Amino acid sequence: MDPLDQILQLRKLLDRANYAYYVDAEPLMSDSEYDKLLRELIELEHLHPEHYDSTSPALRIGGEPLSGFESVVHRVPMQSIDNTYTLSDLQSWYERMGEFLGAPPVCTCDPKIDGVAISLRYVEGILVQAVTRGDGERGDDVTPQARCIRSVPLRLRGEKLPKVLEVRGEIFMPNVSFNKINKEREAQGIQLFANARNATAGTLKSLDPKTVSERNLAFLCHGRGEVVWNGEPSRWHEFVGAVRKLGIPVSDQLVVCNTAQQIIEAVDSFEEQKNNLGFGIDGMVIRVDLFDSQVELGSTAKSPRWCIAFKYPAEQGKTLLSKVEWQVGKNGTLTPRATMEPIFIAGTTVQHATLHNIDEIHRKDIRVGDLVVVEKAGEIIPQVVSSIPSFRDGTQEEISPPTKCPVCDGPVEKEGPKLYCVSPECPAQFREKVKWFAGRDQMDIDGLGDKVVDQLIDAGLVHHFADLYTLTSDDLLPLEGFAEKSAMALVDSIEESKTRGFTRVLSAVGIRLVGKATARTIVKIYPTLQLLQVATIEDFVALHDFGEITAETLHKAIHSKQGEELFNKLASVGVVLSQDQNANLDPVFANKTMVITGTLERWERSALTEELEQRGAKITGSVSKNTDVVIAGEKAGSKLKKAQDLGIEIWNEEQLAASLSM
Ligand SMILES: [Zn+2]
Q1: Any idea what DSSP says for residue 104?
Q2: Distance (Å, rounded) from C-alpha 139 to C-alpha 118?
Q3: DSSP-assigned letters across all residues of 550-592
Q4: Please, what is the average pLDDT of the chain?
């Protein structure tokens, strides 16, 4: 098939898959299938840069990092919405609308998502600009970032497209992604995002669009800006239906109401559902449906009059703080956890909450015995928001940071607001490390949950990751809950995990700052332990997204006595410390015949050959018309000349590096 036809077909298929997923909520294909097709498309576009298209799904993986943001004036200001907190205020608002318009208006209610507002501009159906709200008059151009959000259509569907369509909406992070990212950040020892909105804002303002592509943000339309559209609907709820047909994701919770009573019922009944949507909602937006009436009502300097947000009360409660314990994480972090009198908030009983760190405890002046305010939002861990000092009776005790590790009595060090147990022998750290090691995203050992890890360590069976691999069913049988069959099943699944590959091992062993994504980056360039061991700190600094600290930490972890012992032991029990790239051949290299010539700065020739072969390339010694790519370093001679004569694709080191990290 002609490459252009193939490219067009893949783009169409991927667009359809996105529409099915985000607008119809009926996925066409699995995520891995989508990724596979996307990689195919990326490869094809890489080979045929002449078929570039600003609406291609291939752009969703993000391009080059940006140097800054450009400020853009909104053609129609992005005003903020007035809030109301009581149903009686909401009722008065509705009555005011009715008085002004001469009759009670039809209104719509839809959920107010807790995210970051954005304006997407489509001209002739093509996404041309994405701008943040900013101060309402002007915002930042985040078009490359928005392109990396799969639910933002790059091209609208259908025949009669609006000439200009600006939709406003919310970019947000689903709870699942938020929890996942915080888990990864915790594993890497970097500060957690306080909530999904902060995480979204931080992600969207990242100058590297690749970050956006990895964070799984989503978009829902909730408003309109400039619109030039022959046959534009005249009511909001019709507009929502019409843009949905164009492929723009909208809320499926929209309700049309004809009376104040119906509005109040909609707001009431939604309060129960709002914790089950999978993303954060902080209220309901009520607006006059008819656009002409909206124009008639106009706006104040700050907000439109025809629209109001009802904010649900924060999911908070007051209870007694009875105890603070310091928990030891796998990197030795000591995190304060509050135990409280049980209290019912947002659908569940809460008894524990995080206090973040010692600086936060002091800033909020929280003491043991205090009456405290606890907040819970969605799936986020409950947290202690504040204390109520007026309640104190003199029995409250100030909380001081631990001077010794509560588990191993080892020395404690403070780094910024964080406390660490720095004893390398700390059993609590090890316990957490084994739980992490066995987790689904790491070695994925079925049947080795937190409880079993505790049992194994308590029974003295596991002192090192490698000990897991020598366990027998006879070792397990005496443990509570194990029978012949389950013991054998666990031994089998531990055995099976040996071949998960180097990427997973590297993120499983719990090197500080090295999570899954970082491990992937490392293994792409250093697919075996041997290759990793000869790399220098400078080599690591050159890796995508690596800073000096990460590079040094990684280097130290590999070359420390414990590090060497760790990998030796894992190797000795048969854990595979290389990545079988056959399992996921790189489409950029698969089945390509390549020739390497000249002196390369960044790679050792034999290591590079091995790397490329693992990705599916065939490396040959001489250039012929069957050669697909020639990689030319410094002082390349006759082979380069021959490749030029034959018109064969030639890559320099930069291009090779870019292809390797794609
Ligand atoms: Zn300790």
Answers
A1: P
A2: 9
A3: HHHHHHHHHHSHHHHHHHHHHHHTT---B--GGGG--TTTTT-
A4: 88
> Is pTM beyond 0.85 here?
no
**What pLDDT was estimated at residue 135?**
84
Percent helix, strand, coil in the chain, to 5, is 40, 25, 35
What's the CA-to-centroid distance between 117 and ligand 1, angstroms? 44
Spatial contact of 4 and 48, defined as CB atoms under 8 Å apart? yes
Smallest Cα–Cα separation from 143: which of 161, 124, 156, 126? 126
Which residues keep their CB under 5 angstroms from ion ligand 1? Answer: 405, 407-408, 410, 421, 423, 426
> Mean pLDDT throughout 82-96?
92
Domains of the chain: 3-59 (1.10.287.610), 72-311 (3.30.470.30), 316-417 (2.40.50.140), 427-499 (1.10.150.20), 502-572 (1.10.150.20), 581-660 (3.40.50.10190)
Which range has the top average pLDDT, 12-16, 320-324, 423-427? Answer: 320-324
Q: How far is CA 329 from the centre of its chain?
A: 22
* Cα 336 to ligand 1 centre (Å): 14
The catalytic site residues sit at 112
pLDDT tens for residues 623-636?
A: 888 898 999 888 88
Q: What tokens does 332 get?
A: 């030795």
